[in-house]
């Protein structure tokens, strides 16, 4: 019903139908085709705006993803403890963090003195060996020297995107690492809060698919990081044993800085492909500082460790996680390394694995091979 009253020859209508009349708005586009095209333009504008915003805050998004990777590692440890101790999740997370803290305290107080002494001598030995390499190349007719290497390194550094500058330097690196650890701890303590928050923004009809993909991604990431930690531990420990004691069996003196080289090899193993190359170059440079026999022995150790890791350990881990083509991983590392520096280089592998899992789950659902999952129960 329309309530009309007469006031000085004018009629006023007060019901909702009058206020909802689109013709009453001056911004309403009457032409249906023009209105349709304007809607499409608005959608494309929003898409471009979201893309621009994503690029603008990509560094922050990468830090958040790094925190998720760290949280997944903590979650994996908490799940292992749950198989032994039937206690609450908060206590299990606290135990994992306590073990991690205790390890780094041990590394700093007990092993730190020896490693710090070796680290002080490390640059001098590397520079001396590089000078010998340059001298040999110049004798062979190559016009190359330390200045050329420094210039090349400077050009590579200047080619890194502006995002890297925000996390460049020691202070920026420490701050970024602290943010990853702090945010990761919050994620690990109660991940369901953040899962429900993201699911709330997903259309109701797609939430089953969202939880299905998320659960498989979390499972794969836990296995991937567990395998990565196993590989890092093996490479670091076995490299140290072989460099410090293995050479004695064939009459070769222990390689200098064996503990430092083992630690660097283990840490760099977190970055597949590129990390192994860097650790191998450093190992061989230090090895040849003790003579040709020691240098050849370090080459043997490098290939022994990398072949066992590449042909035995990595395939075993890949069967439990996600098998990524080495060329694809290396390409992703190069792209993310140029865009985001060392952080992008380290996170390229897990990010690529998450993308692959998401595509595989989408393909399976489209073929009807799986039923969408519901919200997972807390572990």
Main sheet strand line-up: 1-2
Distance between the termini: 58 Å
Number of helices: 14
Structural category: mainly alpha
Sheet with most strands: 2 strands, antiparallel
Number of DSSP-assigned strands: 2
Rg, please? 29 Å
Give the secondary structure arrangement, pairings included.
Elements: E1 4-7, E2 10-13, H1 16-19, H2 32-56, H3 58-82, H4 89-109, H5 112-139, H6 146-158, H7 162-166, H8 169-189, H9 191-200, H10 207-244, H11 258-268, H12 274-288, H13 292-320, H14 326-367
Antiparallel strand pairs: 1-2
Helix pairs in contact: 3-4, 3-8, 3-10, 3-14, 5-12, 10-11, 10-13, 10-14, 11-12, 12-13
Describe this structure in words.
- This protein is mainly alpha-helical.
- It is 76% helix and 2% strand.
- A two-stranded antiparallel sheet has the order 1-2.
- A hairpin with a 2-residue loop joins strand 1 and strand 2.
- The longest helix is centred in the C-terminal third of the chain and has 42 residues.
- The N terminus is likely disordered.
């Amino acid at each position: 019903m329309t309530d009309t009253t007469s006031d000085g020859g004018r009629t006023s209508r007060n019901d909702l139908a009058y206020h909802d009349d689109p013709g009453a708005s001056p911004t309403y586009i009457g032409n249906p085709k023009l209105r349709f095209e304007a809607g499409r333009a608005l959608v494309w504008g929003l898409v471009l705006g979201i893309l621009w915003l994503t690029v603008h805050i990509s560094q922050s998004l990468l830090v958040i993803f790094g925190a998720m990777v760290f949280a997944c590692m903590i979650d994996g440890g908490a799940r292992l403890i749950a198989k032994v101790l039937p206690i609450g999740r908060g206590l299990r997370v606290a135990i994992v963090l306590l073990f991690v803290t205790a390890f780094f305290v041990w590394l700093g107080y007990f092993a730190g003195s020896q490693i710090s002494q070796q680290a002080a001598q490390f640059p001098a030995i590397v520079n001396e060996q590089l000078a010998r390499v340059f001298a040999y190349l110049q004798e062979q007719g190559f016009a190359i020297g330390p200045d050329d290497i420094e210039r090349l390194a400077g050009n590579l550094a200047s080619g890194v995107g502006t995002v890297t500058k925000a996390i460049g330097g020691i202070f920026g690196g420490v701050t970024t690492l602290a943010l990853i650890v702090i945010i990761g701890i919050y994620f690990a303590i109660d991940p369901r809060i953040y899962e429900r928050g993201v699911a709330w923004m997903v259309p109701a009809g797609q939430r089953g698919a969202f939880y299905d993909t998320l659960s498989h991604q979390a499972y794969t990431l836990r296995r991937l990081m567990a395998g990565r930690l196993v590989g890092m531990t093996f490479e670091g420990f076995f490299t140290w044993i072989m460099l410090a004691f293995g050479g004695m069996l064939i009459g070769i003196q222990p390689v200098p800085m064996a503990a430092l080289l083992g630690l660097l090899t283990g840490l760099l193993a977190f970055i597949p492909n590129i990390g192994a190359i860097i650790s191998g170059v450093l190992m061989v440079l230090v090895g040849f500082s003790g003579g040709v026999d020691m240098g050849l022995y370090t080459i043997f150790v490098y290939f022994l460790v990398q072949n066992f890791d590449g042909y035995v350990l990595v395939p075993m881990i890949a069967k439990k996680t996600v098998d990524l083509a080495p060329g694809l991983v290396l390409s992703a590392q190069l792209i993310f390394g140029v865009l985001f520096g060392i952080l992008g280089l380290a996170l390229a592998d897990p990010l690529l694995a998450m993308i692959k899992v998401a595509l595989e789950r989408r393909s399976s659902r489209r073929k009807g091979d799986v039923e969408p999952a519901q919200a997972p129960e807390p572990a």
